[in-house]
Design a protein that fits this description.
This protein is mostly beta strands. It has 6 domains: about 150 residues, Sandwich (Immunoglobulin-like), CATH 2.60.40; about 110 residues, Immunoglobulins (Immunoglobulin-like); about 90 residues, Sandwich (Immunoglobulin-like), CATH 2.60.40.10; about 90 residues, Immunoglobulin-like (Sandwich), CATH 2.60.40.10; about 180 residues, Chondroitinase Ac, Chain A, domain 3, CATH 2.60.220; about 40 residues. About 5% of the residues lie in helices and about 45% in strands. It is built from 1 helix and 52 strands. The strands form 11 sheets. Strands 1, 2, 3, 5, 7, 8, 10, 12, 13 and 14 form a 10-stranded mixed β-sheet that branches. The protein is flat, with a radius of gyration of 37 Å. The N terminus and C terminus are likely disordered.
Amino acid sequence: MKKYLIGTLILLTAIVGLIPAISAVAQNSISIQVSPSEIVQDSVTAGQSKQYTLSVDTAFPLVLEVAGLGQSLDGASQVLAAAQDILTQSCSSWITLDKSILNPGSEQDVKATLNVPANAQPGEYYASLYFHTQPNTDNGTAIITGVLVPLIVDVNTSSFTPTIDIHMNSLDISNAYVGKNIKIITTATNIGNVMFRNARVTTAVKNSSGQIIWEETSDISGSTLFPNYPRRVVSTFSGIGLTPGNYTAISTVKTEDGEPIGATLTKDFQVSQPPAIPGIPTLTGPGESTVPGPVINTLSPTLSWSSVSGADSYNLVIRSEPYNGTDKVFEYPGVTGTSLTVPAGKLLSGAKYVWELTAVNVGGESAAAKMYFQTPATVSTTLTTGGVTNITSTSATLTGTLTSKGGFSQVDVSFQYGISNSVLNSSSPIINRTSPGPFSAVLNELSPDTIYYYRAKVQGSTGEPVYGSTLSFRTQTVPPPTSTQPSNTPLKDYFLPLIDESSLTSADGTYLNALDKSGCEVSVTGASGNIKIIAGRYLNEPQAAVAFSTGLVDGGTGKSGIKWVGVRIDGTNSGMARVTLHYSDTEVKDYDLASLFLAYLNGGSWRRATNTTVSATNHTISADIPVVRLTGTVIGMGGTTSKKTSAVIPVGPIGDNPTQNPPAVVGMPWSMVGIIVGTIFIVGVVVIVIELNRRKRIVGNQDFEAPYNRE
């Protein structure tokens, strides 16, 4: 059976959410490398399990997924989401990965296991392993970078008969004018049960007398037709020397040996004289028809013109002084409207330019209309400070709008804030923007019932920052404490902010990444169904019946745990959840790393999570927690301090999980503390009484013996 080898593919797309179809481009130096680059030409049997090991080098954190494998009209391989991966020849549901995420690193092994169902029918099956970054969103567009590894296997080849058949979908003609390149477009589908490799298309043109005046055989792009995916082939026939009249196009798909496959399509068409070349456009600005033109107030102007009768599109060019052919700084052919905004970064400050526009149709291209203009010496970025939303006692969301990037290709926006109108000494994280629009930032760890002042800030790559107006807001007062956290209470009542939420159709291998390193990461295995994972960060230890530890050396606050997070999993109550928390060096600087542990609140008592691992390299701690316990549960991270001057004695019922091995450290119950203190007190009293009686006997003896000692 003939096979098609597909290389590793790098994907760059602007699609948010599920990926219905992502076309692929060739692998490059984008710092994601996978070996092997394909898993193909592999024969398996029904009921067989087989494992493949891939080595991954990545400079980015990656999400690992199994998806369908398809093909675009032009032959590019595609990643198919579940909704589109519906063909019987898909084997994506047979494959599992041992990892759902991958941190940056070299030569990291990923194991893909193929479990062929016992009732699998003989045939050729397709899937893809899709390793990609999280969407990098800017102004509503998400950029995903990833690698596609095709996986193609044959099941029970000895009892499988491969077939190839072609259905001719359509034959279309465009640009049928005298003296022009006439395009003959063939669309065909492989309706066989295997890939059709080295396919070719023969197209021909007959005149009205039935005589063939042109014929061409060409390879289909990529040379391979996937089953059930239509492919498009464009052949070009020169109309030079033709006369107006009626003609017939003929198209046939053939093997590499020239054997026709499927039916032959024919289509009659008419060749006519091309339309007249359109007139010269009328430009409306900005600029003037004489050099050097006016100074405009932006480095990203919108160029406008009037519609030209008979024009199909317009070609636009911008040149810098001295306006020669080699001075081209921007070109945009095929504009279909009557205006175009120059992208940021194309024009420089304090420079002189001319923009030229021609009108185009199939008859030809008009002469150019021109306008000259100058850019300002400096251009300021502008923005406005917006309102505040989601105000609580300890957090708030600030909003702003970037109205102009000031000619920079990228600017940094953020907020400054503080409790004094004259001293805004705190800043939100920086957000990179490549286009104007709204932005926001969440402030955490604010003081309750406090007035805060804030303003928006924008900074270009050079020059001074620009600020919006200063506004203010007041945080809410602290709500009354709650003695316990009921398992059915909404999680949002106990931690701020609700960082991220994800609805998933399957929990196997799913992964939810919080928006910053203070959040938690959850990987669920062994569960199934419609799972919803919600994860967020507690700003302080939540109110609970039992404190995590006494915190005797940090003011008796009862909050000496390193950090707190909240996790809720809806839709299942089976399996184990692998919970991973990031920590910083500052958070654990006084702690022995080997003593770090995770505990979860269960019915007023803390239970230690099992199978704890700590990675000092990745700054993470991971442990297993039963999914049935994660119903809006508080999770705490603690440990033993490494400095004797700041030792913390854990107290309260921090017990081991009764279904697991005993923990390394068990907290000292309050009752035990009381017994020890009481015992010490009683022993002290007894010692004092004994000492007093001894002294009394000594004094008594001295009084009795005194007469014998007198002289």
